[in-house]
Design a protein that fits this description.
The complex is a heterodimer of chains A (about 250) and B (about 400).
Chain A: E1 4-15, E2 18-29, E3 33-37, H1 44-51, E4 59-64, E5 67-68, H2 73-77, E6 80-83, H3 95-105, H4 110-123, H5 139-150, E7 157-161, H6 169-184, E8 188-192, H7 196-202, E9 205-210, E10 213-218, H8 220-225, H9 235-243
Parallel strand pairs in A: 3-8, 3-9, 6-7, 7-8
Antiparallel strand pairs in A: 1-2, 1-4, 4-5, 9-10
Helix pairs in contact in A: 3-4, 3-5, 5-6
Chain B: H1 2-17, H2 19-40, E1 48-54, H3 59-69, E2 74-79, H4 81-89, E3 95-99, H5 103-108, E4 116-119, H6 125-154, H7 162-178, H8 193-225, H9 227-231, H10 238-268, H11 273-300, H12 304-321, H13 333-338, H14 342-354, H15 364-384
Parallel strand pairs in B: 1-2, 1-3
Antiparallel strand pairs in B: 3-4
Helix pairs in contact in B: 1-10, 2-8, 2-10, 6-7, 8-10, 8-11, 8-12, 8-14, 10-11, 11-14, 11-15, 14-15
The chains are: A alpha/beta (about 250), B mainly alpha (about 400).
């Protein structure tokens, strides 16, 4: 593994009596795509919220890019970009306006924000619709904008929380290509998804969470190898074997 | 600070994009102003109706009714006793004048007689004016009889016929009416600023109070859209977010009020340039206090609906306690309670400037209290605010 960029050590987070995250530890290397998988309620989103400084851990330590989250949360926010699970956009604004606004919030000046916004919109195949109102975009287009906003300010680490939910294969493919392109440029990515095949294709390493804990962490190949031949077994088989088949919702 | 301003600008931009919200909030003060103008803008003349039950139906009753009907702006409507009872019972009318049976006979024979009023409760200000007019006509008739009696007594035994005396007295009185010794000259300057002065502060404070609901909703709305969480993963601090939302809510409340004040300035001419600026300063400080209270609500409310309801109920209570459209007696318990409403201080400040011709120096304590509410509101809202339960 490359030099550690994110270190999470023994994270705990409870809401009243419910332990959402219970002793989670992992490390993500610089330039790595790290998959965080788990059934609903496993604690993935809570973990991402702690890593992205929105929630404070009850205990445990997070270090990103050498900064401690307890002492240098602001510095950490300068290093990260977040693509939340639910669309977080201003639907009355255009894609460009959304991106420039979040770019300004990420510390860019007006001109740089506009330049970056246009470049990311091009990457997402949306430059022709840059000035269109987001409310009129299709679901796939909104997802791509949601991801593009996370890239404003050139973060070194991006949290992608189920970025491909409910979109067509073309949009999904565009997002995959974008993520690979980001990795090639040295960006570190934490990726969560319910699509096991996606995680298998994209992630260098995967942590499977359940009940607020990391129950297994390895490369997709090694994880598959634990229950059979990696060429015949799917990541979904591994996932179901580790987390069980009972419904969680 | 730059990011806070950018948050505020974004909020204003979203406000401008929402055509429905924009037209509603900009048209509302204009419509309100049009209503004020329709009600108080024209030359002010009294128009009322005197409800009379004529149980006499004699000569002097008809003289009385004729004189009453002759008063400018006053109509006379005759009622039967039964109609009068029903209308008073239902509060359809609040004051009825009764001409008693034998009224004319008593006057003819030189006896004393009485008109009477029956009224519902304390009646309205308008009815008190009508009552004064009725008293004036009665006084007129009274004086005519006194003059006639005095003249008759002076000329008694001098061979002047009573008929001749009556004609001479009548001519004298009519001449007096046409060319009185003391007359009143009326001069109307513009519209009727008294009413505008009285109600404008209340209307202005009402608009500023909208800021409570607006700022209570903005953060909750942002949370619902998911943009709040996203914003707080950027370099934006919670303090900057609050400041931005605070500036935005002030500007929205201020713009509506500005429209109202500018229109009042142009049409009613109730301001001097200085008093206009002073009113804008009060509006700004009041909007800041209201915006800060809105942020407190935003910090404690869980959902958009909850925030709206808390804000609306709070605004209504503040509005009622503030004595916006009615005066609160100084010695009453209600007066003490009214001191809890920020509206009270804003109304006092506006009244001092608009109605009493005071200056900002005269409303220092009121402005101090409003500024204090703003500071405390901002601190409390920051203390209670969480991006989500367990969050920062």
């Amino acid at each position: 593994m490359a030099e550690a960029f994110l270190v999470a050590e023994d994270l705990h987070k409870s809401f009243n009596d419910f332990k959402a995250v219970n002793g989670v530890s992992f490390t993500i290397g610089k330039g790595e795509i790290f998959g965080l998988l788990g059934p609903n309620g496993a604690g993935k989103t809570t973990t991402i919220r702690m890593l992205s400084t929105v929630l404070e851990p009850d205990s445990g330590e997070i270090t990103i890019g050498g900064y401690s989250i307890r002492q240098d949360a602001e510095a950490i926010r300068g290093l990260i970009g977040v693509c939340p699970q639910d669309l977080a956009l201003y639907e009355d604004l255009s894609a460009l306006e959304n991106m420039v606004f979040f770019g300004r919030m990420a510390g860019l000046n007006g001109r740089d924000a506009r330049t970056q916004a246009m470049s990311h919109l091009k990457l997402m195949g949306l430059e022709d619709r840059a000035r269109g109102k987001v409310a009129k975009y299709s679901g796939g287009m909104k997802r791509r904008i949601n991801l593009a906003i996370a890239l404003m300010g050139s973060p070194q680490l991006v949290f992608l929380d189920e970025p491909t939910v409910g979109i067509d294969p073309q949009s999904r493919n565009n997002i995959f290509e974008t993520i690979r392109g980001l990795r090639d440029k040295g960006m570190t990515i934490l990726y969560t998804t319910h699509y096991m095949e996606e995680a298998d294709r994209l992630c260098d390493r995967i942590a499977i969470m359940d009940g607020g804990k990391v129950i297994r962490m390895d490369t997709p190949y090694q994880l598959k190898g634990e229950i059979g031949s990696p060429d015949k077994v799917t990541l979904e088989d591994v996932f179901l074997k580790l987390t069980g088949r009972s419904l969680r919702d | 600070m730059k990011r806070a301003l950018y948050i505020a600008l974004n909020e204003v931009r979203l406000y401008l994009r929402d055509k429905g919200d924009l037209s509603f909030s900009l048209l509302l003060p204009i419509v309100t102003f049009a209503l004020i103008y329709a009600a108080f803008g024209g030359p002010m003349t009294f128009e009322g109706t005197a409800y009379v039950v004529d149980e006499d139906k004699g000569y002097y009753a008809s003289v009385f009714l004729e004189k009453l009907d002759g008063i400018e702006g006053l109509d006379v409507e005759l009622l039967t006793p039964a109609e009068a009872d029903t209308k008073l019972e239902r509060s359809d009318v609040l004051l009825v004048t009764y001409i008693p049976e034998g009224f004319s006979r008593a006057l003819t024979s030189g006896d004393r007689t009485q008109l009477s009023f029956r009224q519902r409760g304390n009646t309205a200000q308008w009815d008190q004016v009508v009552a004064s007019m009725v008293r004036g006509v009665a006084e007129d008739i009274n004086q005519e009889f006194q003059v006639r009696g005095q003249v008759s007594a002076s000329l008694l035994g001098q061979g002047v016929s009573q008929e001749h005396i009556d004609v001479a007295v009548q001519e004298f009185l009519e001449q007096e009416r046409e060319d009185p010794v003391v007359s009143v000259r009326e001069e109307t300057l513009g519209g009727s600023p008294d009413f505008v002065n009285q109600y404008l502060p209340g209307i202005v404070t009402m608009y500023v109070l909208f800021a409570i609901t607006l700022s209570a909703r903005v953060i909750v709305e942002e949370r619902r859209k998911g943009t709040l969480e996203r914003l707080l993963t950027t370099r934006l601090s919670v303090g900057q977010l609050f400041l931005g939302k605070f500036f935005a809510s002030i500007s929205r409340g201020f713009v509506q009020t500005l429209i109202l004040l500018v229109l009042s300035y142009i049409v009613f001419q109730i301001f001097t340039p200085l008093s206009f600026i002073e009113c804008l300063v009060i509006t700004l400080i009041f909007a800041a206090a209201a915006g800060a209270l809105g942020l407190v609500i935003a910090s404690i409310a869980r959902g958009e609906e909850g925030a709206t309801w808390i804000a609306v109920v709070f605004s209504v209570i503040t509005f009622m306690l503030g004595g916006t459209f009615f005066e609160i007696a100084k010695d009453s318990a209600f007066y003490t309670i009214s001191r809890l409403s920020i509206n009270t201080y804003a109304n006092d400040a506006f009244n001092t400037i608009i109605a009493k011709g005071g200056s900002l120096a005269d409303v220092g304590p009121e402005l101090g209290i409003l500024a204090g509410v703003m500071v405390v509101g901002l601190l409390v809202s920051r203390l209670f605010f969480r991006v989500m339960p367990g969050g920062k």
